[in-house]
Specification:
The chain has about 525 residues and is α/β, with parallel strands linked by helices. It is about 35% helix and about 10% strand. Keywords: Membrane, Transmembrane, Transmembrane helix.
Length: about 525
C-alpha cells in the first residue's frame, strides 16, 4: 500500500471567506478585494475552544489509545530490531521503567478521581493532600528521570564510531516525548547515533508520569505554555544558531514535537533569516497543533524563478497511521487541509443578496475565482512534509526507527543495498501518493505561466504523482554518515538557498536521465 506524503499548502492562497453578508454583497465593487477579515489561525484561538476540540479529538481516537504500545514486538523478522535499545525489550532497565509507570498510572488516576469527593474538606486539608501527593509523585519520578547536569545527555561513544566520517559543521539535538526517563532518553539518542553515525545531544523533557504528562500537553497546546524543559531546549538551540557555519538538526518525538513548535516560534522571533536556514527539523509522532514556517518574501513570484523560500532550512514529519498521538496531532492537522471540502453554492449566495441579475453575475464570478485559489487558512499553519506510514505504535525506537531505518544484524548502521539504496520491501522503498504536489498546484494556479487557471479540475488535493519514499525524504540522505547533496549556488534560483524552503517534488532529469533535483515546500 503506498505511503501518503502530505505537502504543505502555500500560505498565499486566499482565505476562504464566510458567506456573503447583505452589506458586503451590495457595496462591493467587482474586482475589489474582500474586506471581511479571516479567522485567526487555529492554534491562536480561545483556550476553552482548543480544550474542547482536543477533548473531542481525544474521544474520537480513543480506540487507538492502546496503539501507543502495540505491537509489543515485530511479528516479521527480528522481534526487537534494535535489541536492548527498544523500549519494550525485556531488559532490566525497561522493566524498571515500565513497572514505575504502571504504579504512577494507578496512583495518579486515583488521585484525580478522588478530588471531587474531597472538595468539601477544609481548604488547608485539601491543599495539604494535594501537596503531599505531588511531592511523593515527584520523588517517584526522580527514580525515572535520574540526575543529569544541565538536563542533557550525550549519546554513547561506540567503538565503531572511530570509523565514522566526522561532521564538525553539524550539531544533532534530540528532544524526547511523554513518559521518557533517563534510561529511555539514553536509548533514544544512542539509536539515533547508530542510525546517522553522528553524536547526538539529548535534551531531557522530564516525565511526571503518563497522566500528568498528558495534562501538561493540554496546557502546552491550549495555553501555549512553555515548560522549563521547553525553555532549556530553546536556549540550547538558540546558542547553537549563533555559531556561524554550524548546521543544527533537531529531532523531535511526541510531546517533544509539541514543545518544538513553541521553540520554533521563539527562534524565529530572535534569529536572522540566515541563521534559521541552518536549522533542520524532523519529527516522529508529533503531538503539536501547529508548525510555523513563514515565507521570507511577501510574494513568492517576486523571487527569482518564482520559488517559495521559507524561513526554516527543512522540516519533515513522520507518523504511523494508527498511532494515537500522531492522530491527535500531526495527522489530524495535515489532513485538515488536504481533504477539506471547499464547495460553494455560487448562484444561491449571490442572488439572495443582490438586487439585479448583472450584479449577481459579477459577484458569482468573483466568488468563484476566490474559491479556485483558496484554502481555509485557520488550518494552514502546519508546515513540513508528512510521511504517513501504514502501521501502529508510538515508541520512537521500536515503532518508528525500527520500521523506517532498520539496523543491520550487527547494529552498526542502517541496512542498505550495495549501492546505498533502502532494502526492497522496507518503508523507504515504498511508493508514495503525493498529496498537494507543489509542481501540479503551481501549474493549475498559473504560477509557471504568468496567469491563473481558474478551472475546477480536481481541486488542489489530488494524488498527482508516485515516487519512492527515500526519493522524497531528506532525513534518509543522512543515514550511515552520509549527507544530502545540496544543490550548488549556481544551480539555485535563490542565492544561498538550502535544500528545502522552496518546492518539494520537482523531479528533474538531465540529458542522461539522471535525477538531479528533489525539492519541497
Amino acid at each position: 500500500m503506498p505511503v501518503k506524503v502530505y505537502h504543505s499548502l502555500p500560505r498565499d492562497l486566499h482565505a476562504v471567506q464566510p458567506k456573503l453578508s447583505p452589506y458586503i454583497s451590495l457595496n462591493q465593487t467587482p474586482g475589489e478585494k474582500c474586506k471581511t477579515p479571516r479567522k485567526p489561525d487555529y492554534y491562536t484561538g480561545a483556550p476553552w475552544r482548543l480544550l474542547l476540540d482536543d477533548s473531542i479529538l481525544f474521544l474520537r481516537n480513543f480506540s487507538y489509545l492502546k496503539n501507543i504500545v502495540l505491537p509489543l514486538w515485530n511479528d516479521s523478522g527480528r522481534k526487537f530490531s534494535s535489541g536492548h535499545l527498544d523500549e519494550l525489550f525485556p531488559s532490566l532497565g525497561n522493566i524498571h521503567d515500565i513497572t514505575f509507570h504502571a504504579i504512577l498510572i494507578v496512583a495518579q488516576s486515583a488521585f484525580i478521581l478522588s478530588l471531587p469527593f474531597l472538595a468539601a474538606l477544609p481548604f488547608p486539608l485539601l491543599f495539604g493532600y494535594i501537596g503531599v501527593f505531588i511531592v511523593v509523585n515527584q520523588l517517584a519520578c526522580w527514580r525515572l528521570n535520574g540526575y543529569m547536569p544541565g538536563g542533557v545527555l550525550e549519546s554513547t561513544y561506540f567503538p565503531e564510531s572511530k570509523n565514522w566520517e566526522p561532521h564538525p559543521d553539524e550539531q544533532w539535538v534530540f528532544l524526547n516525548g511523554v513518559a521518557v526517563g533517563k534510561h529511555w532518553l539514553q536509548g533514544n539518542i544512542d539509536r539515533l547515533s547508530l542510525t546517522f553515525h553522528r553524536r547526538v545531544l539529548g535534551v531531557h523533557n522530564k516525565t511526571s508520569g503518563i497522566i500528568f504528562d498528558v495534562i501538561q500537553c493540554l496546557l502546552e497546546r491550549c495555553l501555549y505554555f512553555g515548560t522549563s524543559d521547553t525553555r532549556s531546549c530553546f536556549a540550547i538551540i538558540s546558542d547553537l544558531l549563533r555559531i556561524k557555519d554550524k548546521k543544527v538538526i533537531l529531532i523531535l518525538h511526541s510531546q517533544g514535537g509539541l514543545e518544538g513548535s513553541i521553540i520554533l516560534d521563539w527562534l524565529m522571533n530572535q534569529h536572522s533569516q540566515e541563521a534559521m536556514q541552518r536549522l533542520e527539523i524532523y519529527t516522529f509522532g508529533n503531538a503539536a497543533n501547529h508548525f510555523n514556517d513563514p515565507r521570507t518574501s511577501e510574494d513568492e513570484e517576486s523571487a527569482p524563478g518564482g520559488f517559495d523560500k521559507r524561513a526554516v532550512g527543512h522540516i519533515e514529519h513522520y507518523a504511523n497511521s494508527d498511532d494515537f498521538v500522531a492522530r491527535w496531532g500531526v495527522i489530524h492537522f495535515k489532513e485538515k487541509t488536504a481533504f477539506e471540502k471547499r464547495e460553494y453554492d455560487f448562484t444561491t449566495q449571490a442572488t439572495v443578496y443582490s438586487r439585479d441579475t448583472d450584479h449577481a453575475n459579477l459577484i458569482r464570478q468573483y466568488v468563484k475565482i476566490r474559491h479556485d485559489d483558496s484554502v481555509e487558512q485557520t488550518w494552514n499553519s502546519y508546515h513540513g512534509n508528512l510521511f504517513k506510514r501504514n502501521g501502529s505504535g508510538h515508541q520512537l525506537n521500536q515503532h518508528y526507527l525500527d520500521n523506517i531505518f532498520p539496523l543491520d544484524q550487527d547494529m552498526n548502521g542502517v541496512e542498505v543495498t550495495k549501492n546505498g539504496a533502502p532494502l526492497p520491501g522496507t518503508f523507504m522503498d515504498t511508493e508514495v501518493d503525493v498529496i498537494n504536489d507543489p509542481k501540479e498546484m503551481d501549474r493549475r494556479r498559473g504560477k509557471r505561466k504568468g496567469h491563473k487557471d481558474h478551472s475546477h479540475e480536481n481541486g488542489f488535493n489530488d494524488v498527482v504523482s508516485q515516487k519512492k519514499v527515500f526519493q522524497l525524504s531528506r532525513l534518509w540522505s543522512y543515514t550511515n554518515g552520509r549527507h544530502p547533496e545540496d544543490r550548488t549556488e549556481v544551480d539555485l534560483p535563490i542565492k544561498n538557498s538550502s535544500f528545502e524552503g522552496r518546492v518539494k517534488s520537482y523531479f528533474q532529469e538531465d540529458k542522461n536521465n539522471i535525477r538531479v533535483g528533489v525539492e519541497a515546500i
